[in-house]
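Recap quiz, item 2
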Amino acid sequence: MILRTETIRPISKALFNAFFSSVLIIFFLSFLVFSLVYISPGETLLQDYLLSLQDNTDTDINDADLEDIAQANLPQAYMSWLSASINGNLGVSISNGLPVLDQVLELTLNTLYLIISALLIGLLSSFPLVALSVTNTMPLLTRLINTTIKLLSFLPLFWLAYLLIYISTSGFDYYPLAMNYDNMNFSQFILPVILLSFGSGVLVDIYQQLNSEIKRVLNEDYILCARAKGASIFKHVFKEGIAFPLLNLISNRIAYLFGATIIVEQIFNWPGIGRLLWQATQDRDIPLLLGAVIVTAIVIRTAHFSAQLIYVLINPRASHEQDK
Amino acid sequence: MKRISLTAVMFLSLWSVMTVSATTNTNTLIYGETKRPDTLDPYTSNEPSSLRLSQLMFNGLVAINERQEIEPDLASSWTVSKNQKIFTFQLRKNVTWHPYKNRREAFSAKDVIYTVKLLQHPKTVSARKDQFANIFKVEQIDDYQVRFTLKNPAINPIAIFNFKVLPYHVLKNRPYLNKKNQFANHPIGTGPYIFKRSNTNRQITLIANDTYYKGKPHIAKIILKPFSDNNIMNQALSFNNLDMIVSVSPRHLSELQADARFTLKAYNTLSYSFFAYNQNNVNLRKKAVRKAISHAINREEMLKAFFNNQGTIISGPFAPGSWAYNLDVLPDNYDPQKSIALLKSLGYKKTTNGFIDSTGKLLAFRLRVPIEKNNEAAKRVILAYKNFLKDIGIRVNIDFMEREKWKRAIFKDHIFDITYAQWSFDDSSDISTLFHSQYNMAWGNNFISYSNPQVDRLIKQSLSSTDHQEKRTINHRLHKIIADEVPYTFLWSLTQYAAYSKRLSNVRIHPYQFFDNVHLWKKN
Amino acid sequence: MKKIRLILTLFLAAFSYSAAAENKHIDTAMQLYKAMQTNNAATYAIKHVDNIQSLSSLDKLKFALILNNNLAIYKDIYIKSLETQQIFLKSVSTETGPNKSNIAALFLAEVYLLKQNPIAARKQLSEFEKNQTADKTLTAIAGIYLAWAEKLEKNEQAFTQIITSLDTDPPLISMALDFINIMTTATSSLNPNIIRAAEKQYIGTDNPYAIRFANYAIRIYSHQGKLSDARRILLSLKQNAPSFIEEITQFKHIYFYEPSLIDSVSFYYYQSSQSLLTSLKKDKKYHDVAIYYLSDLDLIIANKSSAKQFDNAMLNSKRLPKALASLREIRQNGHGYLLGKTSRAHQVWEKAVNNEKNNPAISAEAILMCLYLKANCPNIVHKARLKAENGRSKRFEKLNTNVGRYFLLKRENNKAVRLLENALDRSNADGLLMNDPILLLNLAEIYRREKRFSESLQIYFSLGKNFPILRQVQDAVQGEYLLKQRSSGSNSIY
Amino acid sequence: MNRINKPLPFKRKHFILRRWIDRLIVLYCLVVLGSVLTAFTITQFNIIELDYEAMDFQSILTPPLTNGHILGTDYLGRDLFNRLLLGTHAYLLPGLMAVSISILFGALLGSLTLFANKRLRKVITLSTELMQTTPRLVILLLIIAIFEANIYYVMLVIGITNIPTVANLISHRIDILRNKRFIEASIANATPIHILIFKHILWYNCRTILISQAALGMAEAVLMETSLSYLGFGVQEPTPSWGNMVQAGSNYLLQGNLWSSSIPALAIMSVLLAFYLLAEVVVKQLNKRHSL
């Protein structure tokens, strides 16, 4: 009993801290972004934005209301936005008049499919490379592969995409374009996912992290001890060499991947949040853009938080370390 | 390892769920656009993509088909008074609106009258308000009869009644129409297709209207798929992800023509590209400056290098395919020496940096254009233009803007010196809104603030004329005057091509509205 | 077999040898011709080559080739012009009200006369008389046209009656009289010196009847074999100028054109090509080729009188280049058809189309015969159509064009559109004008008939740059378009 | 950490190889970055007059070494070589601006943690996390939508968003240094604070961090401009940047015209590689010194 309370308390505390800071960050971010809109040149942006919050489907807005809105100061305006958005009302898109939240949530899911698949593919294809490297069988080949995938990640992503399409259409006569809404299938994932995992540096990252961590873990004293004793070392290596770096990587990389999908979705006509962001920028659709930024941030924060959660769960010691 | 395999299994099953839920509906027409429709109703947007959509969802009282014939549409018959001013329409009785709040209301005279009222409201923002300007009054005789009285007799009076009718029961709480109206995004019409949904990327799904009065459409579903990348759109067509592209870029023409699976169809021949000069600019207000610019650019070379000569160079404000084109007016030739001489004669001095005016300021203009990622042909033209002007000593600063911002700057605020755009006309080739000083206002078509009393007079005369030959003569004269005045540098007219798969049959493409008799189209 | 090949090689060698001694003007014209600017090529060559006899044989051949092709195109334009002018003038002449045109009836009558329809022409002429135009020249011409109508109706008596009552003193009137003589009986009796003396009065001045004068003069000179005189006038002729401008009010001007001008100009091409080829015939090496092209000339205008001569001559002309040799039999039977040997001609043409191994160009030639001779060949065309619609490549272009033209002639518009569009190459790096002008002409015509006026006008506009004489067609189509268009005036920017 | 002697993973042969590779890497960085700098100087001071706007309509999209164009031409018939050289302008000054912002403010903020309490550390950590929460490209798009597409705005954003990263690294370093004798000694000696910070901490102990961060910052500037160019918000034509060159060229890639896009793409790759290698080499030096 005593043991249990001792282990659980710090964990929950650490998690609470993490959660609290996440919430804080989201709020702070929203405030920052909102004030950017507020100071933006031209009165229409804010006006359009605040108008979009009001449920004006069937009523008219009169000019007095407009003036009220234009004269609201920053904290007031922010508070009105905040109260609306906490109630799940992120306003209505200027360009197409649909509620922002619905659109953004739907598309974020689409993007997440892409990102998670890319991470998975990166992971799966990095295993043989890591094995090659760790066992040190063919150092030159390893180095060559290492350099190649690294160089790939330095090429402009969209150019690589074009090249990929060019190769796949002219070389293999194969070109699965991104999905229709009601017609999504596996083959449509192939090119964008390959591109995202190879071109945007996910593979390189996973490979390098795993490589160095596994090497480090294998050289740790206790592993050497365990090896000498003939005990199984798999669990340790997995936990420290694979799981931790991966969790670390996911929380570090996910934001970057969201950025990269803006380009990938553009090219493959993928109906995801990235295309939405681009489109909203083109249209200066501030409510949509703001909604997308906030939702993206929440998703990324959630990913961080769950990575932390898993980390703490499989490694209770971590909470103590963090506490220190 | 177990965990990894577990997650892998999870995601694979997710994929398979997605795959299973996919129903490959073969009876769907998917067409690609590069410009997303702004709004979906027939009036608030002036973009061709919105126009095309409204053709799918709405009907007018009469329709003009691609062979220039007036067809009865929502009106089954009509009578005209002797003085061509009073029109009495007998409306169809078997027409219902698309479901609204799960109910299908019947179409009646109320709707027609309300539409006119809505569009004549001063606060309504629409580029098509002109069409209603000549309507003096509209009365309801009974539920299925309306009578229109026109202000003045006109040359094709019946043609204005092709305006799309809006539903009274949906819009009754709204005295006027603008982009912010909910209706602009959830259109309810009487047409062959019902709006189903529009997602954030403006992929728009329409489903067949079972109770369409002309009969149920053959194609069950139409999807508009916007593309942000022209190359990809072309690839999508050739790999059967699309059935139709509404405008093929010149670059892909040869590819598609050589491919036996597709049909290329020309349409919208009445359009042209131009550089427009803001008359509020002190220098551009001088005709000789504009003339000098027009002589400084080599249009033949640009057309050949950028568009494979797939167009014709024009001399005035009409497309060469129009009845109003004055064949005796020739385009300004490429003559940079003449440009320089013209500028010098105005008192500009040539320095090593370029021309300076009497106060010593450099002759420089701000060219504002939208960022068109897809349209690199336009970009080429703009950059070449800048270079041509640089060669004679005029500096042009190109200001690329986001499309919405550009629209606002050009059409609303008129803050620009030069801009580049393209007009597209229907068969009436009506340029009155472009150059009449009355339309020099926010969101008016005369965004260059052009004003010339002679032109104004001729335009008025052309509009009121009921004599065909007289109308032609007047427009030929307008062409001559405007070509001489160069408020725009008229560039060329390019033919637009639609490409569609041979799986589609019975396809008819209207030169201006695009979708014509779409309920008869078939897909095998 | 070896022998034939040897002869062919020798023939080609001779061709390439004489290429060294080319006239540089003909060379330039040939380049224009290859760039599908047939009319510019012809005009250039006519302008720069003063002395036909000084040309080498090969140059003569090239010159004649250009002229032949231009003749074929002008003949086609002529047909289109008659049709469009008729529609346009009809709409103008049926107008009522104070601002109606007084002249339209006269020009419409001319169109009817050219179409050999004297009854309708007479009706229009009486209409014209009713209008009481002040213009004396036009009134006089109306009188002559009335005589023309009588002649077509074979009322010789009435004809002479009108003729004698006419005041033929102004040269233009006597020329008009001679002109209708040529049109009806193919005889010309006017002293060319009268025309020469009058030239100063009309050519190079802003005389309102300059075009009419040029029209008659070219026709009469060419008919009398005075080619250098005809050439002088042709070169000074502005082919896109209207024959008459009627200014009804300040804002209503109507332009009138003469379709017969096209015919006159093409007659000059016919005559000068004939004289070229006749002199070429003397060169033994080119004898057979010359005969081939001479026969081509007469096929284009479907000349029955010379058919017998060419039927025989073509039978014996064996020394032709391979490309022409394969067409010889088809063409020979064209003359046969004119002589009345129709069933044999059909047989030969059908065989040419049926042979799968044949070059599509050969099938195209068979259809061309049907077109030139206005023959009814449904079977042949049916097979050719199947062949044409499946053929996509450039090789099938001619076949598609000709079958399309056939359907156009037979007013089967849907089929014609499909075939002609099939033939069109939209992707050429040098634009639309790199297509065969004949194809473009017919495509524009079919679009006009399908009421796709803007597309039609656009093609005419492009083509008009190379063929200024198309202006009369363009003008008429514009008029028809304005009449038929039903739009309400919307425009959009993008 | 107390380590027992481990068997060396590499043989001596490999060590020599490694050393040579390291030298090669340094050489590579010098050559690439040197040539970029040369290109910049040549064009900046008009040592050679290059026209990046002159169009040659007769040779559009030609491969290298035709019609007197060393690297061929682009879609307007402009010389790719000239544009490649002039394209360095799009990155060098704006990139330096971004880097100097992040380095300057990051270093200052980081070194302040030497005196400040836990709260400043927390702020730095939180702002680092804030930056990790929003993708850089997303922030850029937001800025572009609100203000306008301008390369200096873009660089400003890149600079500001990198501040927390730099500050974080410095503060970590300071944590390690905090207990070192020289700090205690200099505090005891009453060394002026600015000397302590700038000389002892930042210069002696953190310069590798700063240099590597600067290199990475430059790399990011190039990368972002390229991405934005594809989205249409990068440096706008006719001003050349490598990003908009690739973008313009890639329109013709699917038609099989590889040259006009791959040349600037490879240029971008080699420069990015050089920056990353530079950062890596510097960090390696740092680690080497630390392990002693």
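Chain A has one domain: 5-14+103-323.
DSSP finds 14 helices and no strands in chain A.
End of item.
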